TrEMBL record, chain A:
This is 3-phenylpropionate/trans-cinnamate dioxygenase ferredoxin reductase subunit. GO terms for cellular component: cytoplasm. It holds the Pfam family Pyr_redox_2. Residues 323-407 form the Reductase C-terminal domain. Its cofactor is FAD.
From TrEMBL, chain B:
GO terms for molecular function: 2 iron, 2 sulfur cluster binding; electron transfer activity; metal ion binding. PANTHER family: FERREDOXIN-2, MITOCHONDRIAL, FERREDOXIN/ADRENODOXIN. Belongs to the adrenodoxin/putidaredoxin family. It comes from Fontimonas thermophila. This is Ferredoxin, 2Fe-2S. Residues 2-105 form the 2Fe-2S ferredoxin-type domain. Keywords: 2Fe-2S, Iron, Iron-sulfur, Metal-binding. GO terms for biological process: P450-containing electron transport chain.
Amino acid sequence: MTQAKGTVLIIGGGQAGAETAVELRKLGHDGRILIVGEEPFLPYKRPPLSKAYLAGDCTETQLYMMQAANLEKAGIEYHGGVPVTRIDRAAHTVERADGTQLRYDKLVLATGGRARPLPVPGADKPNVFLLRTIADVQKIRAHCQPGKRVAIVGGGFIGLEAAAVLVKKGLAVTVLEGLPRVLARVTCPQVSAFFERVHRQAGVDLRTGVQVAGFDGDAEVKRVCLSDGSTIETDFVVVGIGLIPNTELAASAGLAVDNGIVVDEYTRTADPDIYAAGDCTHHPSRFLGRYVRLESVQNAMEQGRAAARNIMGRQEPYQMVPWFWSDQYDLKLQMVGISSGYDQLVLRGDPATQRHFAVFYLKNGRIIAADTVSRPQEFMLAKKLVAENATVDPARLADETLPLKTLVG
Amino acid sequence: MPTLKFIEASGQTHVVEAVVGQSVMEAATGHLVPGIVGECGGCCACATCHVYVEEPWCGQLDPPDEMERGMLDGTPGVTARSRLSCQIKVSAALDGLVLRIPAAS
Ligand SMILES: Cc1cc2nc3c(=O)[nH]c(=O)nc-3n(C[C@H](O)[C@H](O)[C@H](O)COP(=O)(O)OP(=O)(O)OC[C@H]3O[C@@H](n4cnc5c(N)ncnc54)[C@H](O)[C@@H]3O)c2cc1C
Ligand code: FES
């Protein structure tokens, strides 16, 4: 086995970067491991940002993937607060914004992405917030007093999770989604309708098919202007309309970028000493049979571990069936596979009347994906069915008198 | 600090000092114990923190809630001693707790 000696430098202290470092140590790498991050905080978990952390139910330290003492014990250095601005591949060095240079033997790009800003007039006002970092949420939390009005732009996971937290905190919440339904890119109309109903029942003013034209107000935004001419009074705005992968550093170093940093199934770029992992990568998926860029913890951690294994000389591809979860109110949504392209939908339970059900997506008679709401056992079984691309009789799959277990081989 | 002992399927043992109030999963990942991933960060959504709890502690822990029971029901390799370690909170009473890690599936 050709084992990496020397310094592994990881750019980006998100879950992909931290997992790479941790796995390198687990596999016995005994050289220096250095994570260089733009954010001042130790590598942390992002999912709670729109859940427990927004709600004020956990502290920054509880978000950290490893506490400072454990990082130190593991010999993982974190240099935060200064971004890397340049990679010199020939010299094997990176340069940071403060002019300092660092040497590497192997480099891992785990630069993730940044929240997409809303390209409308007034979006730069100080009470318009994105939701990607601890710093973003700290600013939002300062505005979260009961009775305040918030306009959330975007009916994706982040917008809906934030809506659930904020309405529970006693704010008057309006959600503005440009497409005809929420979660339109990731789920079927039945599941979208379910979440729309749940949010409306909780008191959220949820509007779909509306376009935000701009924000009105002097020093601060006072109202949201919609393209139909109507306005919505608000005290502050949260924007959750997607992610821009951080690929500029890779591109300026001459590495291939196409929707993300292009890597192979071993997380390698075209440079034998540079790997990439997480939200920033455009990578081949064995399961999907095509290239894809994913934004999920599973992908970030799985690719981080794969990068570590390959740096350690093990030629092991990553193989994963994508999965994701979202917590809203008392509900747990768990999704496995990628549902786009399905030709048949099978429901177990009734999303129109119940608060727990499962939806299976079939293509040519095979299960390609499933969404479950508050049905953990069916989720775990669905994971297996999706991984196997199983063929199951749709009538039996829909029959709730048959436990799902009996359909899993 | 309560001491926890993790035993890998291979027999390899890891003794770690845990902090009261953190979860058993967090104690494991913080000390680089192999085989406990904690993908969902303790949201009871992934089962990558599955462990077998040795006696006498197994019977002494608060029983799993409905969500954890559901996840375990669908997890490969479950036994009567199976728990999701992110759902077990470290307390002084758990000093000496022994946990076995399932073989990688
Ligand atoms: C609010 C929210 C809720 C989420 N909920 C879920 C969920 O429930 N389930 C789920 O699976 N996923 C969820 N996600 C997605 C998940 O958090 C991400 O997919 C995952 O964190 C990506 O990790 P990463 O390490 O690839 O990137 P990131 O976490 O984006 O980390 C990249 C890091 O690199 C740093 N960086 C970038 N450029 C540079 C540079 N030039 N120099 C130095 N540092 C740099 C960035 O500042 C950042 O800290 C959520 C995300 C958000 C924002
Ligand atoms: S860490 Fe995901 S279920 Fe325990």
